[in-house]
């Protein structure tokens, strides 16, 4: 399974990278994506998740080709 | 409906005038235009702020601003909506966001404009990083409306 991962804002700085490409068979949920892409970093409190640019939760299922993004609460406007 | 993300400063009043002039089909139809302009302050959370960088997730931002506009058009009887939002380096007194809603009556445009800004602030993936003195910090929450 191939997954594109993105990190934004303070999460990008905490994790130390803006994106990652995963190619692994042991991925079922967004939580699995987080664990593999961050080398098992603890999930960040208040962290938001988007799968293919729609808000999602860590336990949501991902599929081959998905783009999964992790970021802090939004502060636009 | 129009949604636009801009990397450079803009004058919301000139943009608004030009947008409306380019929509002759609106002429004579709208009796109400409700507008919100969000502008960068030079203070926040008790500190002077010299500058700000606004980061965003481009495709997701566009998608959700269009969704919010569609929702407003479904909830209220609107003739048109406009959202323009900055990203990149921003200075105090620079406009950050322009929202405009056109309708026949104010009972439609006022709540729709309020809906656009409140939904934008909780759903559109933008993040503010402020420069305060020699430090920079991420804004962690929206101010109360």
CATH architecture of chain A: Roll
Distance between the termini of chain A: 37 Å
Q: Classify the beta-strand content of chain B into a percent band.
A: 35-45%
| Largest sheet, strands/sense/barrel of chain A | 5 strands, mixed
The beta-strand count of chain A equals 5
Strands of the widest sheet of chain A, in order across it, are 2-1-5-3-4
| CATH fold description of chain B | Aldehyde Oxidoreductase, domain 3
Q: What does this protein structure show overall?
A:
Chain A is an alpha+beta fold and 77 residues long. Chain A has one domain (2-71): Beta-grasp domain (Ubiquitin-like (UB roll), Roll), CATH 3.10.20. Chain A has helices at residues 9-15, 30-37; strands spanning 2-7, 19-23, 48-51, 54-56, 67-71. Chain A starts with a strand and ends in a 6-residue tail after the last strand. The model of chain A has no long low-confidence stretch (mean pLDDT 97). Chain B is 32% helix and 38% strand. Chain B has 145 residues and is of the alpha+beta class. In chain B, the strands form three sheets. Chain B has a four-stranded mixed sheet with strand order 1-6-8-2, covered by helices on one side. In chain B, strands 7-5-9-10 form a four-stranded antiparallel sheet, with no helix packed on it. Chain B has one domain (2-138): Aldehyde Oxidoreductase, domain 3 (Alpha-Beta Complex), CATH 3.90.1170.40. In chain B, helix 2 (58-75) runs antiparallel to helix 3 (106-123). Chain B has helices at residues 12-21, 58-75, 106-123; strands at 2-6, 32-39, 43-44, 47-48, 51-56, 78-86, 88-90, 95-103, 126-132, 135-138. The model of chain B has no long low-confidence stretch (mean pLDDT 96). Chain B is elongated. The longest helix of chain B has 18 residues, at 58-75. The A-B interface holds A 6, 8-10, 50, 53, 55, 69, 71-77 and B 38, 54-57, 59-61, 63-64, 85, 96-97, 117, 120-129, 138-142.
Keywords summarizing the entry:
heterodimer; A: 77 residues; alpha+beta; Ubiquitin-like (UB roll); 5-stranded mixed beta sheet; 2 helices; 30% strand; B: 145 residues; Aldehyde Oxidoreductase, domain 3; 4-stranded mixed beta sheet; 4-stranded antiparallel beta sheet; 3 helices
């Amino acid at each position: 399974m191939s997954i594109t991962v993105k990190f934004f804002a303070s999460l990008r700085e905490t994790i130390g990278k803006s994106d990652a490409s995963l190619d692994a068979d042991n991925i079922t949920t967004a939580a699995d994506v987080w664990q593999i892409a961050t080398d098992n970093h603890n999930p960040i409190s208040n962290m938001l998740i988007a799968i293919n640019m729609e808000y999602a939760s860590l336990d949501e299922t991902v599929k081959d080709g998905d783009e999964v993004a992790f970021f802090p609460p939004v502060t636009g406007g | 409906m129009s949604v636009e993300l801009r990397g450079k400063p803009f004058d919301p009043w000139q943009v608004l005038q030009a947008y409306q002039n380019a929509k002759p089909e609106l002429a004579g139809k709208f009796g109400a235009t409700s507008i919100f302009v969000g502008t960068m302050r030079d203070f926040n959370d008790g500190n002077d702020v010299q500058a700000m960088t606004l980061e965003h997730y481009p495709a997701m931002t566009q998608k959700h601003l269009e969704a919010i506009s569609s929702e407003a058009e479904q909830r209220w009887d609107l003739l048109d909506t406009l959202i323009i939002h900055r990203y990149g380096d921003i200075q105090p007194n620079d406009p950050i966001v322009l929202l405009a809603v056109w309708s026949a009556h104010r009972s439609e445009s006022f709540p729709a404009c309020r809906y656009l800004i409140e939904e934008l602030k909780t759903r559109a993936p933008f993040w503010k990083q402020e420069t305060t003195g020699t430090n920079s910090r991420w804004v962690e929450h929206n101010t109360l409306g």
